[in-house]
Design a protein that fits this description.
single chain; 6-stranded parallel β-sheet; 10 helices
Protein backbone atom coordinates (compact mmCIF):
# COMPACT_ATOMS: atom_id res chain seq x y z
CA UNK A 1 0.00 0.00 0.00
CA UNK A 2 1.25 3.48 -0.85
CA UNK A 3 1.94 6.20 1.69
CA UNK A 4 -1.02 8.49 2.41
CA UNK A 5 -0.36 12.12 3.34
CA UNK A 6 -2.54 14.22 5.67
CA UNK A 7 -1.72 17.96 5.84
CA UNK A 8 -2.76 20.25 8.71
CA UNK A 9 -2.57 24.04 8.26
CA UNK A 10 -1.48 26.74 10.70
CA UNK A 11 -3.42 29.46 12.48
CA UNK A 12 -5.37 32.10 10.46
CA UNK A 13 -4.93 30.26 7.16
CA UNK A 14 -6.58 27.12 5.73
CA UNK A 15 -6.02 24.01 3.64
CA UNK A 16 -5.15 26.27 0.70
CA UNK A 17 -1.71 26.97 2.22
CA UNK A 18 -0.74 23.49 0.99
CA UNK A 19 -1.55 24.06 -2.71
CA UNK A 20 2.09 23.77 -3.78
CA UNK A 21 2.55 20.56 -1.81
CA UNK A 22 -0.75 19.10 -3.05
CA UNK A 23 0.25 19.81 -6.66
CA UNK A 24 3.65 18.19 -6.11
CA UNK A 25 2.19 15.10 -4.45
CA UNK A 26 -0.47 14.70 -7.14
CA UNK A 27 2.15 15.04 -9.88
CA UNK A 28 4.14 12.23 -8.27
CA UNK A 29 1.13 9.96 -7.78
CA UNK A 30 0.61 10.25 -4.02
CA UNK A 31 -2.76 10.50 -2.29
CA UNK A 32 -3.00 13.55 -0.03
CA UNK A 33 -5.69 15.23 2.06
CA UNK A 34 -5.49 18.78 3.41
CA UNK A 35 -7.98 19.43 6.21
CA UNK A 36 -9.64 22.65 7.34
CA UNK A 37 -9.60 23.01 11.11
CA UNK A 38 -12.70 24.40 12.89
CA UNK A 39 -13.01 28.17 12.57
CA UNK A 40 -10.78 28.17 9.47
CA UNK A 41 -11.25 28.01 5.70
CA UNK A 42 -14.51 26.34 4.70
CA UNK A 43 -15.34 26.03 8.42
CA UNK A 44 -14.89 29.67 9.44
CA UNK A 45 -18.42 29.88 10.81
CA UNK A 46 -17.66 27.13 13.34
CA UNK A 47 -16.17 27.74 16.77
CA UNK A 48 -12.60 26.61 17.27
CA UNK A 49 -12.15 24.04 20.03
CA UNK A 50 -9.16 21.87 20.81
CA UNK A 51 -11.40 18.80 20.91
CA UNK A 52 -12.83 19.40 17.45
CA UNK A 53 -9.43 20.30 15.99
CA UNK A 54 -7.92 17.01 17.21
CA UNK A 55 -11.03 15.13 16.09
CA UNK A 56 -10.63 16.61 12.58
CA UNK A 57 -7.05 15.32 12.40
CA UNK A 58 -8.07 11.93 13.80
CA UNK A 59 -10.89 11.50 11.28
CA UNK A 60 -8.59 12.34 8.34
CA UNK A 61 -5.79 10.09 9.60
CA UNK A 62 -8.06 7.10 10.22
CA UNK A 63 -9.69 7.44 6.81
CA UNK A 64 -6.26 7.62 5.14
CA UNK A 65 -4.93 4.67 7.21
CA UNK A 66 -7.48 2.41 5.52
CA UNK A 67 -5.52 2.94 2.27
CA UNK A 68 -1.94 2.83 3.51
CA UNK A 69 0.62 4.10 6.06
CA UNK A 70 -0.03 7.71 7.01
CA UNK A 71 2.48 10.55 6.89
CA UNK A 72 1.03 13.38 8.98
CA UNK A 73 2.32 16.87 8.14
CA UNK A 74 1.53 19.95 10.22
CA UNK A 75 2.64 23.57 10.06
CA UNK A 76 2.75 26.00 13.02
CA UNK A 77 -0.45 25.48 15.03
CA UNK A 78 -1.15 22.46 12.82
CA UNK A 79 2.27 21.12 13.74
CA UNK A 80 1.64 21.56 17.46
CA UNK A 81 -1.72 19.82 17.15
CA UNK A 82 -0.15 17.01 15.11
CA UNK A 83 2.55 16.49 17.75
CA UNK A 84 -0.09 16.38 20.49
CA UNK A 85 -2.21 13.96 18.45
CA UNK A 86 0.62 11.61 17.45
CA UNK A 87 2.03 11.56 20.99
CA UNK A 88 -1.34 11.15 22.65
CA UNK A 89 -2.06 8.60 25.37
CA UNK A 90 -3.70 6.37 22.76
CA UNK A 91 -1.34 5.69 19.84
CA UNK A 92 -3.00 6.72 16.55
CA UNK A 93 -2.35 5.11 13.13
CA UNK A 94 0.42 7.55 12.15
CA UNK A 95 3.50 6.04 10.49
CA UNK A 96 5.56 9.26 10.35
CA UNK A 97 5.28 12.95 11.22
CA UNK A 98 6.67 16.17 9.77
CA UNK A 99 6.25 18.99 12.30
CA UNK A 100 7.10 22.29 10.63
CA UNK A 101 7.62 25.69 12.25
CA UNK A 102 6.42 24.57 15.67
CA UNK A 103 9.33 23.90 18.04
CA UNK A 104 8.07 26.25 20.74
CA UNK A 105 5.96 25.41 23.77
CA UNK A 106 2.69 27.42 23.56
CA UNK A 107 2.88 29.13 26.93
CA UNK A 108 4.49 31.93 28.89
CA UNK A 109 5.76 35.31 27.76
CA UNK A 110 6.21 34.26 24.14
CA UNK A 111 2.57 33.28 23.74
CA UNK A 112 1.38 36.39 25.59
CA UNK A 113 3.45 38.59 23.25
CA UNK A 114 2.08 36.80 20.18
CA UNK A 115 -1.49 37.28 21.39
CA UNK A 116 -0.81 40.95 22.13
CA UNK A 117 0.55 41.59 18.64
CA UNK A 118 -2.30 39.65 17.04
CA UNK A 119 -4.81 41.64 19.07
CA UNK A 120 -3.22 44.93 18.04
CA UNK A 121 -3.32 43.91 14.38
CA UNK A 122 -6.95 42.84 14.74
CA UNK A 123 -7.82 46.27 16.16
CA UNK A 124 -6.66 48.07 13.00
CA UNK A 125 -9.38 49.30 10.59
CA UNK A 126 -8.67 46.48 8.12
CA UNK A 127 -7.72 44.04 10.91
CA UNK A 128 -4.10 44.19 9.78
CA UNK A 129 -4.68 42.68 6.36
CA UNK A 130 -2.77 45.45 4.54
CA UNK A 131 0.32 44.75 6.66
CA UNK A 132 -0.05 40.98 6.23
CA UNK A 133 -0.30 41.35 2.45
CA UNK A 134 2.80 43.58 2.33
CA UNK A 135 4.80 41.02 4.34
CA UNK A 136 3.75 38.25 1.95
CA UNK A 137 4.60 40.42 -1.06
CA UNK A 138 8.09 41.02 0.33
CA UNK A 139 8.93 37.46 1.37
CA UNK A 140 6.91 34.86 -0.56
CA UNK A 141 7.50 33.86 -4.21
CA UNK A 142 4.75 34.84 -6.63
CA UNK A 143 3.88 31.19 -7.30
CA UNK A 144 2.78 30.57 -3.70
CA UNK A 145 2.01 34.12 -2.49
CA UNK A 146 -1.77 33.79 -2.67
CA UNK A 147 -1.98 30.36 -1.03
CA UNK A 148 -2.24 31.51 2.60
CA UNK A 149 -5.13 33.90 1.92
CA UNK A 150 -6.98 31.88 -0.73
CA UNK A 151 -9.26 30.20 1.80
CA UNK A 152 -9.78 33.41 3.77
CA UNK A 153 -8.18 34.48 7.05
CA UNK A 154 -9.64 33.08 10.28
CA UNK A 155 -9.32 36.34 12.20
CA UNK A 156 -12.18 35.63 14.59
CA UNK A 157 -10.76 32.23 15.61
CA UNK A 158 -7.20 33.40 16.15
CA UNK A 159 -7.21 34.38 19.82
CA UNK A 160 -9.35 31.52 21.04
CA UNK A 161 -7.13 29.08 19.12
CA UNK A 162 -3.99 30.55 20.65
CA UNK A 163 -5.54 30.40 24.11
CA UNK A 164 -6.59 26.76 23.54
CA UNK A 165 -3.05 25.67 22.70
CA UNK A 166 -2.00 26.25 26.32
CA UNK A 167 -4.02 23.12 27.16
CA UNK A 168 -1.61 20.89 25.23
CA UNK A 169 1.06 18.96 27.13
CA UNK A 170 3.56 19.09 24.27
CA UNK A 171 6.57 17.95 26.29
CA UNK A 172 4.86 14.70 27.30
CA UNK A 173 3.45 14.16 23.81
CA UNK A 174 6.74 14.65 21.97
CA UNK A 175 8.49 12.28 24.38
CA UNK A 176 5.95 9.55 23.56
CA UNK A 177 6.38 9.75 19.77
CA UNK A 178 8.15 6.64 18.49
CA UNK A 179 7.53 6.92 14.73
CA UNK A 180 9.94 8.70 12.33
CA UNK A 181 9.77 12.40 13.14
CA UNK A 182 11.13 15.40 11.28
CA UNK A 183 11.23 18.93 12.70
CA UNK A 184 11.46 21.48 9.88
CA UNK A 185 12.22 25.13 10.66
CA UNK A 186 13.10 28.17 8.63
CA UNK A 187 16.45 29.67 9.59
CA UNK A 188 14.76 32.85 10.86
CA UNK A 189 11.64 31.24 12.34
CA UNK A 190 10.66 32.80 15.67
CA UNK A 191 9.26 29.44 16.81
CA UNK A 192 12.71 27.84 17.01
CA UNK A 193 12.64 28.89 20.66
CA UNK A 194 12.56 25.37 22.15
CA UNK A 195 14.20 23.55 19.24
CA UNK A 196 16.87 21.91 21.43
CA UNK A 197 14.28 20.79 23.98
CA UNK A 198 12.12 19.13 21.30
CA UNK A 199 15.17 17.27 19.95
CA UNK A 200 16.08 16.12 23.44
CA UNK A 201 12.53 14.87 24.05
CA UNK A 202 12.59 12.93 20.76
CA UNK A 203 16.23 11.85 20.28
CA UNK A 204 15.37 9.79 17.19
CA UNK A 205 14.00 12.85 15.40
CA UNK A 206 15.73 14.71 12.59
CA UNK A 207 16.00 18.50 12.51
CA UNK A 208 16.03 20.22 9.13
CA UNK A 209 16.74 23.95 9.12
CA UNK A 210 15.96 25.64 5.80
CA UNK A 211 18.37 28.51 5.06
CA UNK A 212 17.09 31.97 4.14
CA UNK A 213 13.57 31.14 5.26
CA UNK A 214 11.15 32.37 7.92
CA UNK A 215 8.15 30.85 9.67
CA UNK A 216 6.30 30.43 6.35
CA UNK A 217 8.78 27.85 5.10
CA UNK A 218 6.25 25.81 3.09
CA UNK A 219 5.48 28.77 0.83
CA UNK A 220 8.80 30.60 1.00
CA UNK A 221 10.84 27.56 -0.07
CA UNK A 222 8.23 25.18 -1.55
CA UNK A 223 10.70 23.05 -3.51
CA UNK A 224 12.82 22.47 -0.41
CA UNK A 225 9.76 21.54 1.63
CA UNK A 226 8.56 19.21 -1.12
CA UNK A 227 11.97 17.52 -1.00
CA UNK A 228 11.43 16.94 2.73
CA UNK A 229 8.07 15.35 1.91
CA UNK A 230 9.82 13.07 -0.56
CA UNK A 231 12.43 12.13 2.06
CA UNK A 232 9.74 11.21 4.57
CA UNK A 233 7.75 9.22 2.00
CA UNK A 234 10.87 7.30 0.96
CA UNK A 235 11.62 6.58 4.62
CA UNK A 236 8.14 5.15 5.20
CA UNK A 237 8.32 3.18 1.93
CA UNK A 238 11.55 1.64 3.24
CA UNK A 239 9.84 0.50 6.40
CA UNK A 240 10.37 3.54 8.61
CA UNK A 241 14.14 3.36 8.99
CA UNK A 242 15.21 7.00 9.03
Amino acid sequence: MSVQIVLVHGIRTSATMWRSQLAYLDEHGYDATAVDLPGHGTRRLEDFTLHEALHTIDAAVRAAAERGPVLLVGHSMGGLLSLAYTGGAETPPVAGLIAASCTALPRGAGLRAYRLIAGAMNALPDRGLWIADRVLDATIPLETRSDFAAGGYALDAQDVALRSLTGLDLAAAVARIAVPLWFVNGQYDQLRLNETLFQRLAPHSELIVVPRSTHLVTAMRPRVFNAVLQLAIATLDAGGDA
